[in-house]
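Worked example

This section walks through a single chain of length 119. The input is the sequence exactly as stored; nothing has been trimmed or padded.
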Amino acid sequence: MNKSEEITRAKAVKLILEGKTDEALRLLSQYYKIETPSIKIGLPKGHVGVYACYIPSKKTIYVKSSKEYRDPYIVLHEYYHHLRIFLGKHRGTEKHANKYALDSIKFYIRYMKLINETP
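Given that input, the structure is written out below as tokens.
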């Protein structure tokens, strides 16, 4: 992975925390050169007991509420599934989706520390 991907993912985390989740998804999708998924608040029927899900046929991430809409871990976990499908690969395991989301948050923390450091 290169620094530009780390920076892009860190920026996406920041945007999600600010409630600009649509913008974060556009940023990531532009970086990966894939179609941007839609995101909707409210789960589709039959998806009880989860915070979010990705429906490939609709290219849409669904989140339970506005709380999850601003949660980078949840949003980026589902985005990973979207990314894998658009790269022509298997949907990806939950473990890999968790890692993608967690690593993105770690990149954000690292870059925020760099920005806020004083000489």
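What to look for: The first strand starts at residue 38 and ends at 41.
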